[in-house]
Design a protein that fits this description.
Elements lengths: L17 H8 L7 E2 L20 E4 L9 H5 L2 E3 L17 E2 L12 E7 L9 E5 L7 E9 L12 E8 L10 E7 L10 E9 L4 E7 L5 E10 L2 E6 L2 E7 L9 E8 L9 E14 L5 H14 L3 E3 L5
Antiparallel strand pairs: 1-17, 2-16, 2-17, 3-6, 4-5, 5-16, 6-15, 7-12, 7-16, 8-9, 8-15, 9-10, 10-11, 12-13, 13-14
Length: 314
């Protein structure tokens, strides 16, 4: 079961005004959608379709963490302090957008965490949205989970995660919906395991959860539908867990993809852990089946649309 982990998190709040400014500088005023060619690094200045209402889609076709389009589209790579995991070890170095022949469209967001077993030699990575105003509806992502490090000795208590979460841990209406994959377990448990967790409070922790004991290396479609007072988590089209009552979203949330270490169980020798994200999709206020999510995503790829956002700000 997931343990308390978010109470030390801090945000760099000043970045919330940056996407709007960069959008102007990048000539984004033509509409909320952006269609880019396979090798383009910046949003197209040509007219693009407005897309279906209440939709956010991104296939992470960016040149790197400093690509102006990344900020213009409402994403940031975390560099502030706090937890979870090994506190104050967040770095942009682990975020990249390489080509990947196993992904749809051939491009991914790669989150690579690394450690030598010391805090000084540890780098955690997280990419999060900023002020995206996502509340109820369908959240979906195609995510690659790793069971072992890409280099170095196995055995770290690493957590590969995808989750919507409130902008502030101290919010009276705190909301968080987690997917956490622990290939080697942690917090006293033995992995592999996938925890799905619906939170009501971060501190003191108040949440309900479900654990799937299964090895999951490879690509998976993770979905959360939050509608009509019920939250349902599904993996590759199979429902895993449902929460209701007070364990549902109560306010708008941001999206996070994160790869971090619970602790440092052994020192000596560098090792790296990779998590990848192919695409993210959100549909406001509606429960969408995985088949329909994939159909919509396929349509965006066919049209050459790498990013679209028609979600109302208010």
């Amino acid at each position: 079961m997931s343990q308390p982990r978010r109470t030390s998190r801090r945000r760099a709040w000043t970045v919330r005004t940056l996407p709007a400014l960069l959008c102007v500088l990048a000539a984004c005023s033509g509409g909320p959608a952006s269609g880019r060619g396979a090798d383009a690094a910046a949003p197209s200045a040509s007219p693009t379709p407005s897309g279906p209402p209440g939709t956010l889609f991104d296939d992470f076709h960016y040149s790197g963490p400093d690509d102006p389009s990344l900020a213009a589209h409402g994403w940031q790579v975390r560099t502030d302090g706090g937890g979870p995991g090994i506190k104050d070890t967040w770095a942009t170095a682990g975020a990249s957008f390489p080509s990947d022949t196993t992904s749809q469209g051939g491009r991914v967001l790669q989150l690579q965490s690394s450690t030598d077993g010391t805090k000084q030699g540890t780098k955690q990575v997280e990419v999060q949205s900023t002020g995206t105003s996502l509340f109820t509806g369908t959240f979906a992502a195609r995510v690659y989970l790793s069971d072992k490090p890409t280099s170095g000795r196995n055995g770290d208590h690493v957590v590969e995660t995808f989750f919507p979460i409130s902008p502030s841990d101290s919010s009276a209406n705190y909301s968080e919906l987690d997917y956490e994959y622990l290939p080697n377990g942690g917090w006293g448990s033995v992995g592999p395991q996938l925890d799905t967790v619906s939170w009501y409070k971060a501190d003191p922790p108040d949440r309900v959860s479900h654990t799937l004991k299964q090895r999951l290396e490879g690509w998976h479609i993770m979905m959360v539908t939050a509608v009509n007072g019920k939250v349902t988590y599904s993996l590759d089209g199979k429902d895993l867990f449902t929460s209701s009552g007070k364990y549902v979203p109560r306010e708008k949330m941001d999206i996070h993809f994160s790869n971090w270490f619970i602790d440092l169980p052994f020192a000596g020798g560098q090792r790296t852990w990779d998590m990848k994200v192919n695409w993210f999709y959100y549909k406001a206020g509606e429960a969408v089946s995985q088949a329909d999510v994939q159909k919509t995503v396929d349509g965006f790829y066919s049209a050459g649309t790498n990013y679209i956002n028609t979600v109302p700000n208010s």
